[in-house]
Amino acid sequence: MPASPLSRRAVLAGTAAAAALTAIPVLPGNARAAEATRPAYRWRNAVIGGTGFVTGVLFHPAVRGLAYARTDIGGAYRWDHRAARWTPLLDQLGWDDWNLLGVEALAIDPAHPDRLYLALGTYAQSWAGNGAVLRSEDRGATWKRSDLSVKLGGNEDGRGTGERLLVDPRDSDTLWLGTRHDGLLKSRDRGVTWAAVGGFPVDPSSSGQGVTLLVAAGRTVYAGWGDGGGTTANLYRTTDGTTWEAVPGQPSGEAAAVPIRAAYDRHTRELYVTYADAPGPNGQSDGSVHRLATGAGTWTEVTPVKPGGTDTFGYGGAAVDARRPGTVVVSTNNRWAAVDTLFRTTDGGRTWTSLKDSAVFDVSETPFLKWGGDQPKFGWWIQAVAVDPYDSRHVLYGTGATLYGTRDLKHWAPRTRGLEETSVTQLISPPVGEAHLISGSRDIGVMYHERLTASPSRGMATNPVFGSATGLAQAAGRPSYVVRTGWGDNGNGACSNDGGRTWAPFTAQPSIAHDAPGPIATNADGSVLLWSFVHWDGTKHAAHRSADNGATWSEVSSFPKGATPVADPADPALFYAYDTDTGTVYASTDSGRSFTARATGLPSGDSQFQLVAAPGRSGDLWLSVKGNGLYRSTDGGGTFATIGSCRASHTLGFGKAADGAEYPALYLVGSTETITAVYRSDDEAKTWVRINDDAHQWGWTGQTVTGDPRVHGRVYLATNGRGIQYGEPV
User: Which of 88, 212, 372, 429 has the fewest Cβ atoms nearer than 10 Å?
Assistant: First the structure.
């Protein structure tokens, strides 16, 4: 399942309605974070394990145990052979560089093992920033950066093709970079500067895939072209690094429309190319595998199984065994009827064996991979495949949710320690009970974290299973009662009476819930549910209320459509909502039956504004308005005052108060001056201290943050691609 791309409005600071704030009083505060007294924090992932699309895996051919992986929205990783875990390489990228967490391609230098190159850029849309190339001389421990004048698309269609970045086999100082819309680029100074390649035989366009892959076969470089449509050439080569030509005799037709991956067997001097009728990872229905004898120039089709009838799919990953001539592994992709597999040949493609047929899986380390069933699937979105050049039976392949590995071609298990790519949307830290954290994410629903250092033993919440969570709420005065909402095929809402361990679907749900599940709230004693509905395209619908645990629902016409409901943590009769369209706070004093406007003239026009209620207090509301700062109301939303210590607030949460303090600790993703960072305040927002550092930034972190109500200083932070980060004072 894919990690959902953020909209432009989810990542750009709001600028609306600044003039409307002039009448709002300003509460005193120190506008400078107390850098001199910054506490030392240790940051780690709350372990889930994988959870996102692993789009590329490379072993280094000259160093045993050295490998790299790339993801579509969660950065790149280096395998630590001794620790048997992945080390994230891009956590230092900050808020302004959120678009660089999507890795379009990676490249290693076979002759210089310490050199590593990454081509970064998540989206190629007009609202996204340009891409960049990072280059390292120490395997990704430190980086130098070259900004590009073109856009890349690490989370666009075709993100599993590649690699689109290559060190030239003739000269380690020369690099090639294939782009989607700007043709082929070349660097002669190890990635410092880049220029368009003149004379490349095909012209780039503002749409399509452009260059899908670059591969070295001896001293020749091959480039795949994704816009040929199956009727024109889509594989080109250069033997001198200057002139390019279409490869003679190459396959054509729908089954060979887009070159997806290629791998070169240096022993037999044969190039294996996988093809599909679309770039993937979705939308493929046909594909093939072909072998090119590079010396003789002859092509042979070696497709393991041809798609057809109800068994439609494309081909994806390709990897050769460096130790055994003629041994190759390829993957199917988008094969939903018969389920995707890896095919392996030891005779150059004359015969193939499906590794799925004998596969034995152990997912005890990441139980969510059962997806609520008894057994995990072999995988889907398989476009990354690698064979260890030092161990022929050590194979890795990426899926839309994890990275699997084997040492004997039969027994498979996740290889995701240290690799966390979840796009997180919801966080709750319960005040009592076994779990200190319950989370909701895109693609993997809701999880109950008994431990922060191990993947939840129950996997994702079931009964029903959600693809993505849209709402998660706990009754403040009855913490055993938790509700969740999300995208699912067998129901879109559920409740728990044991703190989130087990679930039951609502007996009924509004008809709109299936197409537009949105956020949900439950009042302080858990007697009332208020469910808001927002379609994935942004269309807002009327909220509904239930006073019988979801057995019946009634429309609340006075609730602002699409707003996020907020329950008062102390008074069960009170609910609140912030209408971002008009900049108005609404309140209900009759348990959500009706809402009336209170404060008006607040910033508007950005759906990411957040209204939160301070725990244990009635009517104590805080409003994050991104580029327009932070506001507070102590009268249930009647009036708001500006918090002078905060320049911008993207999300705000609460945790256990410091020793001697009466007010809960506040945790902020925002800025007190110019740097967007994570801050804590122990004095009711009078002053702030930054608690993350430049090495721990994780790109865009504006979804949600919460402190632990039982452990002062512990904070849980949602990221868009680096999972759940939690920090604790050292």
Answer: 372
Residue 98 within a domain:
yes
Write out the two tokens for 144: 């130098």
* 445/356 same-domain check: no
One of 72, 109, 388, 708 is an active-site residue; which one? 72
Amino acid at 669: V
Closest C-alpha among 581, 515, 578, 592 to residue 546: 592
CA angle (423, 425, 427) in 5-degree steps: 120
| pLDDT of 27 higher than 60 | no
- Where residue 63 falls among pLDDT bands split at 50, 70, 90? very high
Asked if residue 677 and residue 608 are part of one domain, the reply reads: yes
Global pTM? 0.94
Are 59 and 166 in contact by the 8 Å Cβ rule? The answer is: no
DSSP state of 197: P
Q: Is 464 exposed, middle or buried (0-12, 13-18, 19+ CB in 10 A)?
A: buried
657 domain-assigned: yes
Q: Tell me the C-alpha distance between 53 and 13, whole Å.
A: 27
Tell me whether residue 157 is one of the annotated catalytic residues. Answer: no
| 438 and 402 share one domain | no
Distance between CA 655 and CA 674 in Å, rounded? 25
Domain shared by 364 and 382, yes or no: yes
* 680-708 pLDDT per residue, tens: 999 999 999 999 999 999 999 999 999 99
Q: Does the annotation count 321 as an active-site position? A: no
- Alpha helices, DSSP H only, in 107-257? none
Q: DSSP letters along 282-329, please? A: SS---EEEEEEETTTTEEEE--SS--BTTB--EEEEEEE-SSSTT-EE
Is the pLDDT reported for residue 58 higher than 60? Answer: yes
The arithmetic mean of pLDDT across residues 427-438, rounded, is 98
Q: What is the three-class DSSP state of 398?
A: strand
Q: How confident is the model at residue 608 (pLDDT cuts 50, 70, 90)?
A: confident
Q: How confident is the model at residue 586, as a pLDDT?
A: 98
**pLDDT tens string 322-338:** 999 999 999 999 999 99
Domain that holds residue 254: 49-414
Residue 75 lies in a domain: yes
Q: Which two tokens stand for residue 276?
A: 């599909």
18 and 142 share one domain: no
Tokens for 229, please give them.
């449509």
118 near 131, Cβ under 8 Å?
no
Q: pLDDT per residue over 513-527, tens digit each?
A: 999 999 999 999 999
- Residues paired with 274 in a beta bridge: 261, 289
Catalytic residue (one of 443, 606, 620, 708):
443
Domain containing 522 — which CATH number? Answer: 2.130.10.10
Which of 363, 384, 414 delimits the end of a domain?
414
Residue listed under structure tokens 């432009």: 8
Q: Residue 375, exposed/middle/buried by CB under 10 A (0-12, 13-18, 19+)?
A: exposed
| Ramachandran category for residue 81: left, alpha or beta (phi over 0 → left; psi -120 to 50 → alpha) | alpha
53 shares its domain with 153: yes
Number of domains in the chain: 2
Burial of 22 (0-12, 13-18, 19+ CB in 10 A): exposed
